[in-house]
Amino acid sequence: MIIIDTLLIGLSSGAIYALMALALVLVWRSTRVVNFAQAGQAILSTYLGYEVMNRTHSYWISIPFAIVGGAAIAAFIDAVILRSLAKRSHKGSVSEIAPVIATLGLLGLIRSLTGMIWGNAYVQYISPLSGKGYMIGKHTIPFSPQNLIIVIGALLVMGIFATIFKFTNLGLALRAASFQPEISRLAGIRVDRIRTIGWAFAGAAGAVAGALVTPTTYLSPNSLDLLLVSGFVAAVIGGLDSLIGAVLGGLLLGVGFAFILQYIGASVTFSAAFIILIVVLFVRPRGILGSKVGRRDA
Amino acid sequence: MRKSKALSALTFLAIGLFLLGLSNFVDELRVYQGAQIAVYVIAISSIILLTGYSGQISLGHGALMAIGGYAAVLSYTYWHLPVLLAFTVGALAAALGGFILGMAAARLSGPYLAGTTLALAVGLPSLANQFHILGGEGGLSFDIGEAPKWIANKTGGDFTQYKWFFWVSTVCALVTIWFIKNLLQSRFGRTWRAVRGNPSAAALSGINIGRSKVLAFTVSSALAGLAGALLAMLLGLVAPMAFTLTLSFTLVTGAVLAGVTNLAGSIVGAVVLVVIPEITDVVATHLGGSEKITANLPGLITSVLLILTVIFAPNGPKLHIRKKVHN
């Protein structure tokens, strides 16, 4: 019974990790940047949702606002900051790490902005769904209606992305632009614009993660930092450039964390994230489903 | 060559004496901030060494500083080592951690390394709660005491503890910069630059790339450990809260603002990091801003500076200007 309970906890947190990993992978595929600002973007969009909820008193109305907001923020960041960075990039000792540092700067910027607007104190972003687990017979399982909506929401996002990538022209353009930008440009794809759309998708995925997970905890300018690390580890487990890999990585990590929490203790969880990451990078650096290019040349 | 070396050693000595003398003429707060700057100088130059010269990035130097801080405090408290030896233990412990991390780092590039070190920065400080000896959330206190009598007597009157902190950290910072400066001019420095500039060509010339990267990571970590031990001295304790993710980010910010290939810039970066909160404090109180604004203005300004530097002068403000002149 404990094992099933642990699996259920892992499923719900894994779905959130998967969404975050999906966001990181989408950006990585479109611009070859690991977007550390993703945590900040998700925070900002969640605060937008929080603001809408305060006005409308409805969690459900606030979610679409958060998603659209998240997509818009991401598109803005790519179009304004990342593009001008790429345009001005010249050979230099830091040209390789410049985008990483820029996203770090953005993370700091968004954090302080949200802190200025909403304050650094914890606030509650409340869902009307109960956080209490379902009852099966006399046993309360650690899986609440909110957990259910997390899993459903994550599945929905993944389904939509899978459909877009597999069956639409936009999806084909997205895949082509990340696979061979030069040739795609010659083939008439407006690579810059497609990249921005990739960023917007990522922003939307991050926004969904933020809006769904926050009711189970609290909201503050850095309440999603740990989610960023889990998302990154999940993305690396999955191979960093595979969308399905990101989902699998997220679920594996979620279940893994749940078991560590159950059998070892809460305080080692994030050290465990680091150790899992190191082990994956040593044993199978291209992840479960990553392309063959090793980490050395990435 | 030898002449210039003697000259540079003399310059360092002169700067040191000047700074130490200066500490007699400013008030306590400034002395403390001077000590802070010195600690930041060490930490930032450790990142400059790593990123600017060896081409590796680390978002986990806060964690390495934590290793240094905890090791120094533990050896001071339990082994009763003299302070300077405790600092050395801190540096060595961080070097060991950095060596292990560097082994992983040498196999990784750019984003992977950034993410891995980020995970370390998040994961490691929370370990303090796991082991009883590390003191949990509250941490361990660290009091190095007053300055030795013979120094206090030489300089006369009231030799405060802050002034002693300032002396210790300034001397450490000067020695560090002098050490790095010489190291970068040595065989190792040349090797690192070669690997950073063109790994394939460096490998063909017989350089062991992996070994060179691990060495850079180890040396950089040792310096970060020293900075961590000094930070513990300034704060009077080590605790997980002192080595947050924000600290790691702050160090990278300082290094980028300094110009990551410019060792002397580490001083500029350190001063900026200490001065910005001061300025924003004054500005915020003048404008009558709320607590929300005051608390977040320094972060906002450093972040904006970081982004602007990366976009407009990625190799650091100084190099950028020099290039313009040449063109």
Write the layout of secondary structure elements.
The complex is a heterodimer of chains A (298) and B (327).
Chain A: H1 2-31, H2 38-56, H3 59-88, H4 98-118, E1 135-136, E2 139-140, H5 145-167, H6 169-179, H7 181-186, H8 191-213, H9 225-238, H10 243-263, H11 269-283
Antiparallel strand pairs in A: 1-2
Helix pairs in contact in A: 1-5, 1-8, 1-9, 1-10, 2-3, 2-4, 2-8, 3-8, 5-6, 5-8, 6-8, 9-10, 9-11
Chain B: H1 2-22, H2 28-54, H3 61-78, H4 83-105, H5 110-126, E1 140-141, H6 149-154, H7 161-185, H8 187-197, H9 199-204, H10 209-235, E2 237-238, H11 245-258, H12 265-287, H13 291-312, H14 317-326
Antiparallel strand pairs in B: 1-2
Helix pairs in contact in B: 1-7, 2-7, 2-10, 2-11, 2-12, 3-4, 3-5, 3-10, 4-10, 7-10, 8-10, 11-12, 11-13, 12-13
Tell me what the structure shows.
The complex is a heterodimer of chains A (298) and B (327). Helix content of chain A is 71%, strand content 1%. Chain A is globular and about 65 Å long. By secondary structure, chain A is mainly α. The model of chain A is unreliable at 294-298 (pLDDT under 50). In chain A, a hairpin with a 2-residue loop joins strand 1 and strand 2. Chain B has one domain. Helices cover 76% and strands 1% of the residues of chain B. In chain B, helix 3 (61-78) runs antiparallel to helix 4, helix 3 (61-78) packs across helix 10 (209-235) and helix 11 crosses helix 12 (265-287). With 327 residues, chain B is mainly α. Chains A and B meet through helix 3, helix 4, helix 9 and helix 11 of A and helix 2, helix 5, helix 11 and helix 13 of B.
